Amino acid sequence: MALKYSRQRQVIKDFLMTRKDHPTADVVYMNVKREYPNISLGTVYRNLSLLANLGEIQRLQVGDGIDHFDADTSRHYHVVCTKCGSVTDLAMDSTPYDELTNTVNADFEGIIEGHVTYFYGICGNCHKKL
Amino acid sequence: MALKYSRQRQVIKDFLMTRKDHPTADVVYMNVKREYPNISLGTVYRNLSLLANLGEIQRLQVGDGIDHFDADTSRHYHVVCTKCGSVTDLAMDSTPYDELTNTVNADFEGIIEGHVTYFYGICGNCHKKL
DNA sequence: TTCCTTGCAAATCGTTTGCATAATG
DNA sequence: CATTATGCAAACGATTTGCAAGGAA
């Protein structure tokens, strides 16, 4: 299954790279549609999954039942706002990540490869409004 | 909306307390059905959600798209096996949990209330078989 | 020409919900 | 009696998939 170029896939990835709010498939669809009116939802889903499997984008399951996508594949944490539902990046070096993984690996009878963490709380924006 | 006793809810909770493998709603349904043949899937979903909202059980979203439930409401982490998909408890004191939350709170412009973490790797069982 | 990709629509699947009936307080 | 809970089936919403047609190598 050699990969072939597809304009749609490129547009999807390009769009995702312009956003740092981790849009859902549907949001990607609606936006990409403006520039590429014929694109179908199925194609968007197919390509988002493909890109995620290739490791070119990240799939986030933040707990609202809808998958979010992130073009930033560097290791970083996310904060989900319990007020507005926004998903924002958390600037942080990789120390806490490695520490947590190591701590847990210490006395686990299997092998811990990594972890996924979502922080919940009030985002900066909502906090100002209070 | 005062809560009224329901045999079904009790059976569901009782069953969940006997399991430490974090079953899905469907698994709960199939098992509870043996003891209570007339129960419906809808009732199982309704009660699992109710119990989770009351804080009497925990809802786990481990990334397979299906909700898992845990009668152990104490704060603890989980390991999802990338081989067999099992979800097991991780014995650990609360220090790493608090540390992570505090580290992140230090320079975040909102308020972090807590976090959800799932570890991924090979569980003890699968590791033995390699 | 090969076979990956698309658009479209139908199908899946976990979960929720409306409604008439049953059970609880 | 007032209200909550149930069983059933239909509805939902996000995602996947089958298929015939289109596009890349």
Produce a short descriptive summary.
The structure is a homodimer of 130-residue chains. Chain A is an alpha+beta fold.
Key terms:
homodimer; 130 residues; alpha+beta; Arc Repressor Mutant, subunit A; Dna Ligase, domain 1; 2 domains; three-stranded mixed sheet; two-stranded antiparallel sheet; 5 helices; 42% helix; globular; DNA-binding
Explain this structure to me?
The structure is a homodimer of 130-residue chains. Chain A has 130 residues and is an alpha+beta fold. Chain A folds into two domains: 73 residues, Orthogonal Bundle (Arc Repressor Mutant, subunit A); 57 residues, 2-Layer Sandwich (Dna Ligase, domain 1). Chain A contains five helices and five strands. Chain A has a three-stranded mixed sheet. In chain A, α1 crosses α2, α1 packs across α3 and α2 crosses α3. Chain A is globular, with a radius of gyration of 17 Å. Chains A and B meet through β3, α4, β5 and α5 of A and β3, α4, β5 and α5 of B. Chain A binds a DNA duplex (25 and 25 nucleotides) through α1 and α3.
Beta-strand percentage range of chain A: 15-25%
Oligomer description: homodimer
CATH homologous superfamily grouping of the largest domain in chain A: Winged helix-like DNA-binding domain superfamily/Winged helix DNA-binding domain
Could you tell me the mean pLDDT of chain A? 93
> Order of strands in the sheet with the most strands of chain A?
4-3-5
Number of strands of chain A: 5
Summarize the biggest pleated sheet of chain A.
3 strands, mixed
What's the topology here?
The structure is a homodimer of 130-residue chains.
Chain A: H1 7-18, H2 25-35, H3 41-54, E1 58-60, E2 68-70, E3 77-81, E4 87-90, H4 95-106, E5 111-122, H5 124-129
Parallel strand pairs in A: 3-5
Antiparallel strand pairs in A: 1-2, 3-4
Chain A binds a DNA duplex (25 and 25 nucleotides) through residues 1-9, 24-26, 38-43, 45-47, 49, 65-67.
